[in-house]
Design brief:
It comes from Pedobacter steynii. One of its GO terms (cellular component) is cell outer membrane. This is SusD family protein. Keywords: Cell outer membrane, Membrane, Signal. There is one protein chain. The chain is mainly alpha-helical and about 475 residues long. It is built from 18 helices and four strands. Among the domains are: about 230 residues, Serine Threonine Protein Phosphatase 5, Tetratricopeptide repeat, CATH 1.25.40.390; about 80 residues, no CATH class. It has a two-stranded antiparallel ribbon with strand order 1-4. Strands 2-3 form a two-stranded antiparallel sheet. The relative contact order is 0.12.
Length: about 475
Amino acid sequence: MLINRKSKILCIALMTFAMLFSCKKILDTEVVEIPTDTNAITSAADVDKAIAAAYSFLRFVVPDKVFLMGDMRANVFSSYSQSSNTRTETLIATNSSASLLNNGGGDWNGFYRVVSQCNLVLEKIQGIPVYDEVTKKRHIGEASFLRALSYFYLARFWGDVPLNLKAVDLANLPKAPQADVFKQIQQDLDVAIANLQMSYGANEMAVRATKGAAWAIKAHVMGWLQDYSSCEKLCDSVITRGPYVMVKDTTNLLSIFVGKSTEGIFELNFDANLKEVQKNRVFNRTLGRPWYTDYSDGGGGTETFLLSPSPEQMTQMFVPGSKDARRFTWFVRETYTGRTNNRVYLGKYRSLQLKGDTSSQNINESNIIVTRLPDIILLRAEALASTGIGRVAEAAELLNSVRRRAFAKEYAGNGSIQDTILLERKKELIGEGQYFFDLVRTRKMTKDSKITNGDWFARGTWLLPISQAIIAQSNFVITQNEYWK
């Protein structure tokens, strides 16, 4: 965390840092704590290794946090029993303090670890004497992008948060107003856009920051701030100026989640060959057998605790009898012995690496998607359909371009286009940690969640509580979010 950081690290840690990072392999987070010694980064090669660490730190924190607080909290998944022997994750949608805190909803330390690493990189870059200009610009752009993305998650989860731009010798920092945090996010993304290129080669497609990724995240930022005019223009840049193309072959849609597909904009890379494997609840809570066989924590092989859309939730997304390829591509239908209700696996991440360790659940080939082309197409449709812009025909065409890929019936003006776009985002992006953010951004929380109080936004019902441990460690400079006091 950013509180009371040591200003030095041991020599052996620095040697480990220098020896073990490589440009292609992003090591596990245990390898290097955040380096803070003045000699830790002295060359462009050191910077590349330090940025690799930042990606690794982000990969460590995002999958669980965003799936649980972006999907589970939006009430799109449930377990077999909602009253007994339930998974702790099942109760997240009830929005109780206990259910959120018990699932890590109060802990922001992982994001601040990324922030501190990026702060260090941006500080040290300026003092490196020999530096290829193209490489230097890329490094500045990547560090700025990763810091902006981390703060965007922080602000969407907790609202006012400490704003820190220094790597070492940190005093206890109080929370900064969201307006200041978002100002810094936009500044960082503008730096990223100015310094990054559209592509750095197929091998790094989507798994390292690019100009297109920075446009896409800034589009989401502007949408979050209700500046739909700016949001729409940024989305248009991604769609028309970026190299992204939707995967059209419905038999090959799972390639999107293996990673580095033509529609990938930014995703977290997992590669078993590089030992980038990780036990997380995106995989082991949604797949079960035959993909996982570990019963040790009630996940994996225990279908009783499988997290999936209920039959009612599936019907709400996919009208019975309607055609939609995502119903059989995103989901794997199974009937479990002795159970009267049929459930489905979320199968987006079922393309798992056979070299992985199925018994410990440390197995995955699938990447975690942060943003991809259909996300930005539908975000642009949302912006165009907003009351401030009102270009409904263009919005409908974008909506239908995503529907056509799934062979779903096209929108022809029946029903609210804003609600239709929101539902389409739910169907297209389920399991990618987007839907709770969608409900907050569109101010439609009471429409499709268990947060139903009429003044939910003003009261901050949608914000997460802050762990009491974090508050105490700050010497109570950090205060609890108002709704959770």
